Amino acid sequence: MYKHILVAYDGSDGAKIALNNAAHLAKCLKARLVALWVGGFRPYYHETVAEIDEETKSIEKFSAKLKKELGLMSKELGVDIEYAHLQGNPAKLIVEFAEKKGVDLIVMGCKGHSGLWGNDLGHVTDKVSENAKCNVLIARK
Question: Rounded to an integer, what is the distance from CA 5 to the centroid of its chain?
Answer without folding.
Answer: 11
